[in-house]
Design brief:
By secondary structure, this protein is α+β, with helices and mostly antiparallel strands. The chain has seven helices and ten strands.
Length: 252
């Protein structure tokens, strides 16, 4: 069986960038390609290939690991009823920890479905492999990227040299959030602000005092600018949880 080779398909125009300033005056850039762009390019350049979740033995799409955490089994089908190899993808929370099946809710399923789609697209077609291997994305798409086919086993090729990137671990703030993780935490903030609008400013001020003491917060686009690292995100999630429980316990 052969499948489309979409290696080198994405260009710099397909990649989104966020420039983030650090507390010490420096900056770094977060690069990502959205699941929606992934879908658009696959439909355009690999027509007839569709993403699927394999149904589990429990008549749903969540499989159980020996420890009780859940995962998806993903694959693609082709226009001539081809079926690719299975790709296992664990269902993870915002900290990238696997989640017990009884704790998996609809939002977690949908977020992980989109992550699994992008990961399986890379595994199957080599699509957007640069975003996973941190190789340089070309200015224009490779001419033969979507006209040739590839066997399931591709020959290895030497990766081009790329300039050094910002480390994944910041000495002062810990491990960085990836774009999907950041979106999950910001969704928590949005839900909290919607339900408890009077406490929105308090949430920012409390977070800011913890991680940026002695400075005043800029409330405009605060979370997209300052929510960058996992320790901060975990502190924020705990803060929201505790305040939510506290407000629920009030007699009004």
């Amino acid at each position: 069986m052969t499948i489309p080779d979409l290696s080198g398909l994405i260009t710099k125009d397909d990649v989104n960038h966020i420039r983030v300033k650090t507390q010490k005056g420096g900056s770094y850039e977060i690069d990502y390609i959205s699941w929606a762009k992934t879908s658009q390019l696959l439909k355009q350049h690999a027509p007839g290939w569709e993403f699927h979740l394999r149904q589990s033995n429990s008549d749903n799409w969540i499989w159980a690991s020996p420890d009780g955490t859940g995962f998806y089994m993903c694959y693609f089908t082709g226009p001539e009823k081809q079926q690719t190899a299975d790709f296992l993808y664990p269902i993870m929370d915002h900290r990238n920890n696997p989640v017990k099946i009884e704790n998996i809710h609809a939002r977690l399923q949908s977020d992980n479905h989109r992550r699994a789609y992008c990961a399986c697209s890379c595994f199957t077609f080599g699509f957007a492999h640069e975003m996973w291997t941190q190789e340089e994305v070309q200015d224009t798409a490779l001419k033969n990227a979507v006209t040739n086919t590839q066997p399931l086993q591709k020959p290895k090729r030497e990766a081009p040299k790329t300039p050094p990137r910002e480390p994944d671990i910041h000495k002062g703030f810990g491990e960085r959030l990836d774009q999907s993780e950041k979106g999950t935490f910001i969704a928590l903030v949005i839900a909290f602000d919607k339900e408890h609008a009077d406490w929105s400013k308090w949430l920012i001020e409390t977070f800011h005092a913890k991680f940026f003491p002695g400075t005043k917060p800029n409330f405009e686009k605060y979370w997209s600018t300052n929510l960058l690292f996992k320790p901060g995100a975990e502190f924020l999630a705990d803060l929201i949880d505790k305040k939510t429980q506290e407000l629920k316990a009030m007699p009004f």
